[in-house]
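Researcher: We're teaching a course module on how sequence relates to structure. For the next exercise, students receive a sequence and then see the predicted structure as tokens, so they can try to spot secondary structure elements on their own. Here is the exercise chain.
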Amino acid sequence: MKKMMLVLTAVMAVTHSLEAQRGMLDNAVGLRMGLGSGVTFQHFTSNRSAFEAIAYQRFGAANLTLLAEAHEQMFDVRGLRYFYGAGAHVWVFNRNSVLQDNILRENSYALGVDAIVGIAYYLRSVPIQFSVDWKPGINLLGSHYIEWDSGALSARYRF
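Model: And here is the predicted structure for the students to work with:
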């Protein structure tokens, strides 16, 4: 029991130390509005690095995208950053999905890669972040489709 308490105390001390160094705003969740609208979740591993998960629907299909991103200071404007990154996605199409003016006749899926580039603004008075991005993607397995027009405006609550 004493060992368990000692380990728990050590883990809490390290966690508190890391939070003090990085701040408390390590996560952001919000809405993504564009040609494909949905939700977005970011987890910041440092002040400059983040992982983002995006779930949205388009073409009557559902998409889940996972990205690794780098966030860099833009000009000398406090709270203004540009970001870029890459990742992968999976599409799940149902038989009524419309892709490239074709109605799919069966349920299917597609796997592919994505890139992302954008600009984000972090409000200082409240934990809100706004961003605009362009996220092209290409399917490598399943339907062979290049999605060049996937961009969005996102609003996220940081916590």
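Model: If you want an answer key for the exercise: The first helix runs from residue 2 to 22. The chain has a mean pLDDT of 84.
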